[in-house]
Design brief:
With 114 residues, this protein is mainly α. Helix 1 packs antiparallel against helix 3. The longest helix is centred in the last third of the chain and has 64 residues. It is rod-shaped.
Length: 114
């Protein structure tokens, strides 16, 4: 296995996992799941009362959800690039294998003629 193929497969698998995780996390942040309150709560000294705290927290949830989806799209691009790396590496290995077969055929034909 070539280095390009191994790296492509590794990036491909990691990108699949990242897209799934970030997409699901984006949904959870959009739903304002309470388990993620620590990531979404505003600065401890940046709000005046409870209503201001809730407003800032909801804005933070929305912002984080959008950030998760943007990161998922970036990982989709990485997924596509790693797919093309895998295809390129497989084509390169196939061409090398075909060249070896051509060389063996040429050498066998040349030996028969001699």
């Amino acid at each position: 296995m070539s280095l390009l193929l191994g790296c492509g497969v590794c990036c491909f698998l990691l990108s699949i996992w990242a897209v799934l995780q970030l997409f699901v996390m984006g949904i959870f942040f959009k739903m304002e799941v309470l388990a993620f309150i620590e990531e979404a709560e505003p600065d401890h000294h940046g709000y005046d009362d409870y209503d201001d705290f809730m407003k800032q927290t909801k804005e933070n949830y929305k912002t984080i959800a959008i950030n998760c989806w943007v990161a998922a799209v970036i990982y989709l691009v990485t997924l596509g690039l790693s797919y093309f790396c895998i295809k390129h590496a497989k084509n390169k290995e196939r061409l090398a294998r075909d060249n070896v077969q051509d060389d063996e055929t040429y050498c066998k034909d040349k030996a028969k003629k001699s």
